[in-house]
Structure formats: structure tokens, C-alpha cells
Amino acid sequence: QNLVKIFANRPKPAVDGINITFYEGQITAFLGHNGAGKTTTMSILTGLFPPTSGTVLVGGLDIQTHMDSIRHRLGMCPQHNILFNHLTVAEHILFYSQLKGRSREEAEQELETMLEDMGLTHKRNEEAQNLSGGMQRKLSVAIAFVGEAKVVVLDEPTSGVDPYSRRSIWDLLLKYRPGRTIILSTHHMDEADILGDRVAIISQGKLFCSGSPVFLKNSFGSGFYLTLVRKMRTTKMGRATVSMSVVCLI
Ligand SMILES: Nc1ncnc2c1ncn2[C@@H]1O[C@H](COP(=O)(O)OP(=O)(O)OP(=O)(O)O)[C@@H](O)[C@H]1O
Ligand SMILES: [Mg+2]
């Protein structure tokens, strides 16, 4: 509600009067240029620092007065991984799950599901410092969901992740969407289009527009999607087809 953040050393607000509602059971994708104010907004949402003015209500509770209660159901994946070098993948999930109040047994059950869903089963005993960048990212996303987090804030969860792993993160988000309010920032327009029930575009700290991808395309879009399907010659392996999509903008 009227969210404003002015950093002490900068005259221009990083967040400049944003009003927006995020809905349960939906993924809202935050799109915006570098420095648009995505991380600042998400940091305020998760209580990392307070707003200069305005506030955020999470399930009716105000972040300025009820942050401790809100944290119980909040999960966050920061833009830059914050992992413990010498804890393994499994230890991270167990640690955060128990930190959120789950028993050891519940945490162990959650661990198995998470490892399976993230495709990290073979890395369960690997220390975080030995994981590739993409795997560290996957672990950070998994941590955001542990402990039955109901409001999950993901700051560029798929940055630096290969296309196959990106797909597995998408699958995880879609699987975990029911009953949760998921907010993710991204620079990938295809990602926002595919995952976002709603897309919010911010520019220079202001909410530029928000709505479902269909609504936004109908309101502001001009152009066509042209899908070309080319038949390949029959090979010993059978017939293969290649499909590619080209976006033509008028
Ligand atoms: N701690 C800080 N102190 C001063 N200015 C800051 C601070 N954090 C962010 N800013 C400024 O606030 C503005 C918004 O930054 P923010 O990190 O929210 O952008 P972003 O949309 O997340 O960008 P990116 O896509 O590059 O991650 C930028 O102009 C940035 O320089
Ligand atoms: Mg950012």
C-alpha cells in the first residue's frame, strides 16, 4: 500500500508509491529493468528493511507490527545465494525446515520430497560450496518452500540456471502453487508469460501495469506469434520434426 523506499544516499526513490495485491493460489511475476526496484520491493515484503512510507499487509497482518508472526509462513529466495559453505544439501533443507518449526521426522520427510522435486537426490550429501551455480540456485529455491511457507518470494530464481534445470524449477513452482502466494522476479519475458497468473511490470520504482498475460497482451500488445514447423527427412531413428517460434512485432 503506497510503498515508498528512499535510500539515504540517493535522492530518487528506489520504490515510488507502489500499490499492488498478490493473490493466493497464483504466481505473480515481477518484470522490470535493472534497478527498477524489484529487489527493494521484495526485501521490504520479507522484512529485510523497513519502507520509508506505506506498508505491506500479509494475510491481514502488517509487516511493521507483526513481522514475527508473518515470518512463520514466509519463504524467500534472495537474488544472490546465501548458503552455508560446509553444510550439505540435505543439512540445509533439514536446518531450515526445523527452523520453521517442523519436527525432525517431518523435516526428514520434507527433505525426501524436496530432493526428488528439485532433482537434487544425487547431490544430497554434497557440501553447498561444491555445487555448481545452477544447483546452488535450485537449493536456494527449495529452501524458500520448506516448512510449509505460504507466501514465497523468489528474486530471480532461475538466473544462471540452464534451460533444463529452469524447466524443473518451473515444474516445482507450478506444483507448489495451490494454496500459496508466490511472487517471483525475472528478466525472462517467456518465464513471466508461462508462469505468471499475473504479471506486474515495474519501471523506475513505479508500477507500470499489472494483470494476466492475456489482459496485458490484449491491452498493450501488437503483433503475432508465428509458429513454423519444419518436417525433417526420415532417418533410421524415425521421423523427426523441428518446431521453432518466431515473434513478429509490427
Ligand atoms: N542499499 C542500497 N543503498 C542505496 N541504493 C540502493 C540500495 N539498494 C538498491 N539501491 C538502488 O535502488 C534502485 C533499485 O534497486 P533494486 O536492487 O531494487 O533493483 P532491481 O529491480 O532488483 O534490479 P536488478 O534487476 O538489477 O536486480 C537502484 O537504483 C539501486 O541502485
Ligand atoms: Mg534485483
Automatic annotation (TrEMBL):
PANTHER family assigned: ATP-BINDING CASSETTE SUB-FAMILY A MEMBER 2, ATP-BINDING CASSETTE TRANSPORTER SUBFAMILY A ABCA
The protein, known as: ABC transporter domain-containing protein
Lineage: Eukaryota, Metazoa, Chordata, Craniata, Vertebrata
Gene Ontology terms: cellular component: membrane
Record-linked Gene3D superfamilies: P-loop containing nucleotide triphosphate hydrolases
Ranges for domain ABC transporter: 1-229
MF GO annotations: ABC-type transporter activity; ATP binding; ATP hydrolysis activity; lipid transporter activity
UniProt keyword list: ATP-binding, Nucleotide-binding, Repeat, Transport
A Pfam short name: ABC_tran
Species this protein is from: Junco hyemalis (Dark-eyed junco)
